[in-house]
Amino acid sequence: MTLALLGYLAHSVADFVLQSDEIARGKDGRSQYAYIRHGIHVLVCTFVATHAYALPGLIYSLIVAALHVTVDFLVRVGLTARHVGVGGVVVSLACDQALHIATITIPANLLDPPVNPGIVSAYQKIWSMAVPRGVQVFLSHKADTVLLMATAYVLAVFGGAILVRKVLDASGVLNKPLTDSAGDVTVRSGAYIGVLERAILLTLVLANSISSIGFVIAAKSLSRLREMEKQNFAEYYLIGTLTSALIALGTGIAVKALIGSLAR
């Protein structure tokens, strides 16, 4: 299971943190250079995450990178062209990520290699000198949980930003002026606030403090109260906020369920 979890974390970083708008546009335009750049990102991230497996880790990384690029191309050719609107965006992204999860999980289960003892021993020596004993004990028993939570934060915070933007684009609200003179500033500040919002909401869900979620949404709404008088901004705010909250809450609930299954 650990190899697959490392693959999920690497995929999240490569797909949602390192993939720039330039690469995404290039892939939409079927640029070979964009696909190669993205494939290299996936390969490097996956091998960095799995290098403790040595050669099997490299083989796994090559397989995952090749399959990742293939899925990206097929999804853009087959699904994105056929699905439009908010529903189409969600369907395309869901199919894309489901296929990526499969291409990470299946090779991991088929290979299922042991970690390299020499590499692990070297890290254990560094680990014992640099990390407090209590933290060592906790992480040694909760490695899969930590990997799962790290992946969840990357997906919710950074992947969520991409999904919110796609939903806003598909809704058409960004084609209207949001403010009299500072629409771009409003969009940028909304994106930054959304990042913090999803991180806080996910933390509250994982900490079983769901009752505090309303306070976060209310505080955000108060800061935008005057701008809410403008219909276009109100549409932008509501669509963005509800989508962002849904992503954080859905991710948190899913992760808690997965953590529970790992504990059994």
How would you portray this structure in words?
The chain is 82% helix and 0% strand. The chain has eleven helices and no strands. The chain has helices spanning 2-17, 21-28, 32-50, 55-80, 85-111, 117-130, 133-141, 143-171, 183-206, 213-223, 231-263. The mean pLDDT is 83.
Topology record:
Elements: H1 2-17, H2 21-28, H3 32-50, H4 55-80, H5 85-111, H6 117-130, H7 133-141, H8 143-171, H9 183-206, H10 213-223, H11 231-263
Helix pairs in contact: 1-3, 1-5, 1-8, 2-3, 3-4, 4-5, 5-8, 8-9, 8-11, 9-10, 9-11
Give the percentage of residues in beta strands: under 5%
The value of Rg in angstroms is: 20 Å
Overall outline: globular
Name the poorly predicted regions.
none
Q: How many beta-strand elements?
A: 0
Helix content: over 70%
Order of helices and strands: HHHHHHHHHHH
Reported for the largest beta sheet, the result is: none
Mean of the pLDDT scores? 83
Number of helical segments with 4 or more residues: 11
Distance between the termini: 14 Å
Q: Structural class per helix/strand content?
A: mainly alpha
Please describe the structure with a list of short key phrases separated by commas or semicolons.
single chain, 264 residues, mainly alpha, 11 helices, 0% strand, globular
